[in-house]
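To assess whether the prediction recovers the assembly geometry, we first specified each molecular entity separately, as shown.
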Amino acid sequence: MPSLFFNEEHEILRRHIRKFVEAEIAPHADEWEKARDFPSSVFRRLGELGLLGLRYPEEYGGQGGDLFASIVLTEELSRGQSSGLPTAVAVHTEMAMPIMLQFGTEEQKQRFLVPGINGEKIFALAMTEPDAGSDLSAIQTKGVPEGGAGPASPEAVAAGTHWIINGAKLYITNGCRADGVVTAVRTSPDKWAGITLFLIEKGTPGYTVAKKLDKVGLWSSDTAELVFEDCRVPSANILGQVNAGFFHLMWELQGERIISSAAAVAAGDRALELALKFVNERSAFGKPLGKLQALRHRLADMATDLEAARQLVYTTAWRIQQGEQVLKEVSMCKLFAAQMAFRIADEALQMHGGAGYMEEYLVSRVWRDCRALRIAAGTDEIMREIIAKQLGL
Ligand SMILES: Cc1cc2nc3c(=O)[nH]c(=O)nc-3n(C[C@H](O)[C@H](O)[C@H](O)COP(=O)(O)OP(=O)(O)OC[C@H]3O[C@@H](n4cnc5c(N)ncnc54)[C@H](O)[C@@H]3O)c2cc1C
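The predicted structure of the complete assembly is given in tokenized form:
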């Protein structure tokens, strides 16, 4: 049956990624979980296979595909038995690099985007700080033009100056391994029109990875605290306009949230699959668990929940692709899909009984990994705030 959203090319891509994940990702998942890391060479391999540039223009080494190609990648990487790796890849391809493509100069695209697409460079995006997460307008990491303590001005940029950056960023995915971090920096006191995006490169004096953070889940992805102390960054590394960073990030967050929603649907899929397998294999009171009505009905609800999220996410992605502004719907996708994934994962774990709480059973990993989806890329509460505002409240 032809899909409304995926064409033959998407299906070929899906088969290609599935084979790769089965052969080169899934067999290493346990080892990478235990190591709390995966080798950065995986990025180079993904780049070699063209998977980091699926929806980037061919002139920069991309495949020239669409948003549904990114969704296929998200769905198929979720079969790799750990969500750490797909999260790291999504931060690189769907958070950091879109900013370079949309707002970067030609020179920046050659310097950053091209090596990002071929997997030679890995990127992160740093917004969150110890005292500012949901409220991006409250960030305090500060940048001043070298030799002057005044607020940033376009003239200062035109003068080709460097900037001195001081501050800290928290919970930064890829923070330990990144070759460059797209960093939100306060360059003027204006709450919203006072943030600038800098690409801060590894090795820049004053830029340090202060700490690798231990997480509840997503063990194989690295999450870091970054510190900038008198970090000297050239104007040539400013992405987009000075003092327009907040608005650039509001644009970026829409793409990030639709992919995060697709990741939630994929997590729900994995949880339901595991639950179905288990209730068919395990018996209690003389029959398979799957024949117990109490469980059958809950499984039917889980499948319905999952399908509702899937259709909402695909339809919203299709509307984005048509160029529509769908702020409300993207926020609904993120809220509904993230909650759905955790509900289903929690039910799936419960149906496994004691086994569900054991590390040996994959369902426990799906459960702890998908909890992050209700926090990262904007919390449930912030999604509700956006939706309420769009309802005129
Ligand atoms: C696994 C993981 C990876 C992450 N990766 C990155 C990354 O790569 N880059 C990055 O910049 N950040 C990253 N983050 C950070 C993430 O975006 C923030 O944690 C999130 O935005 C919430 O910010 P906060 O932690 O400061 O919580 P706070 O903003 O302090 O919120 C605390 C609680 O208050 C609620 N709250 C806040 N404001 C309101 C409001 N107006 N109304 C109602 N409730 C409210 C929140 O919903 C939350 O429940 C990551 C987080 C996690 C868990």
